[in-house]
Amino acid sequence: MVQQQALRDFAQAMASFFAGTHRRPTWRKAGRDEGFRIVAVKPCHIKRLSRNTGAVRVPKTGWVRFRWSRAVPAAKSYRVTRDRAGRWHVAFAAIPSTIPAPGSGEIVGIDRGVAVSAALSTGELLHCPGLRNAEQARLRRLERKLARAKNGSNRRRRVRKAIAVLKAREADRRKDWAEKTSTDLARRFDLIRIEDLRITGMTRSAKGTQAKPGCNVRQKAGLNREIMRSGWGLLARRLEDKAPGRVQKVTPAYTSQRCSACGHAAAENRKSQAVFACRACAVTLNADVNAARNIAAGHAVTARGRPGLPGRPNREPHLTLLSV
User: Fold this and answer.
1) What is the rounded CA–CA span in Å between residue 45 and residue 13?
2) Which helix (H) or strand (E) holds 25?
3) Which residues, in sequence order, are bridge partners of residue 38?
4) Residues 118 and 112 sit within 8 Å (Cβ to Cβ)
5) What confidence tens digit (pLDDT) does each residue in 10-38 have?
6) Active-site residue (options: 9, 33, 111, 170)
7) Which of 67, 92, 138, 235 could form a disulfide with 75 if both were Cys (CB 3.0 to 4.6 A apart)?
8) Residue 176 catalytic?
9) 261-299 b/e with 16+ CB inside 10 Å = b?
10) Torsion of CA 120, 99, 236, 88, to 10 degrees
11) What angle do CA 244, 183, 38 make, to 5 degrees?
């Protein structure tokens, strides 16, 4: 059964790739995405042993205990996986129900950044949790230790697992933050507007080629890591899953330079990363909150119609929305 499902999953992945909806499946690598899928699951194959413990019947293995972290749905298949930290997980396939709109008519704008993971137009500043200072120091020590370890040695294997445990802890916190934040926003607001960011292009390496090497490669690599740690894509994806049809993506052009009070757009309005001071109306507020309010209002100033450019008439900013 496991081998048949692996072939069927590969066939489905290739069909999705040729259809243009997904990327090409990658080659299998030992220690990465380890697991198998079981289909034709019956209710008698799952039982609850206690308040926090359950058991699932795995063919050729028998009953395997697992931690009962949430209500188990009536699924027809489940997948058992092992991550790089050595933890085993069982996931039951089910389509979750969406979160209904509150009906209040409120609209919220979300500006995603590095210093502030998500700034809301209501003035709230949300930060994605990561590793603590002691954990970051331990991670740096382990990475230096890994660089000195010999390839294929047991010492290198132990250090890699210790690093994987810290990375998994950071990823778990990021996922937990994205789930709780997306659920809260879907319950509070009828319409959610976020920036239409090309995260894949923004996190592309700047090293260039041997003929044309890039510049500031180390600084760009550090920025890429901070963007990935902020959970931009995960938050947007979970919002679209929980509030389908209520998420709109706005073109982010000049939303950080436009005043949300009077509409004046200029590069001089952005005093620093955190301070926005309008040159026209003297309004001062948090720069991320100002951008979030522009996103909530649907204001996206393009380079063609940007006010204040020499030799070009002032034009009203227009809105570009992509319905999801």
Assistant:
1) 28
2) none
3) 78
4) yes
5) 999 999 999 999 999 988 888 777 889 88
6) 111
7) 92
8) no
9) eebbbbeebbeeeeebbbeeeebebbbbbbbbbbbbbbb
10) 120
11) 75
Domain extent listing, the chain: 2-92, 107-249
Give tens-digit pLDDT for 254-292: 888 899 888 888 888 888 888 999 988 888 999 999 999
Nearest one of 319, 321, 286 to 121, comparing CA atoms: 286
Answer left, alpha or beta for residue 216, where phi above 0 means left and psi between -120 and 50 means alpha: left
pLDDT, one tens digit per residue, over 127-171 is: 999 999 999 999 999 999 999 999 999 999 999 999 999 999 999
User: How far apart, in whole angstroms, are the C-alpha atoms of residue 94 and residue 178?
Assistant: 20
Across the chain, where does the E strand assignment appear? Answer: 34-39, 46-48, 53-58, 62-67, 77-82, 88-92, 107-112, 118-120, 125-126, 191-195, 247-250, 275-277, 284-286, 321-323
- Closest by CA to 111, choosing from 98, 102, 121, is 121
3-state helix, strand, coil in the chain (%, to 5): 35, 20, 45
Alpha-carbon span 304 to 89, nearest angstrom: 51
Active-site residue (options: 83, 135, 170, 288): 288
Does residue 172 carry a catalytic annotation? no
Q: Which residues pair with 107 in a beta bridge?
A: 191
Helical axes 154-188 vs 133-148, angle rounded to 10°: 150
| CB crowding 187-203: b at 16 or more within 10 Å, else e | eebebbbbbbbeeeeeb
- Active-site pick, 124, 135, 170, 195: 195
Q: Can you read off the two tokens belonging to residue 115?
A: 């210093």
Determine contact, residues 25/10, Cβ cutoff 8 Å: yes
Instruction: Provide the greatest CA pair distance for the chain.
Output: 77
288 given a catalytic annotation? yes
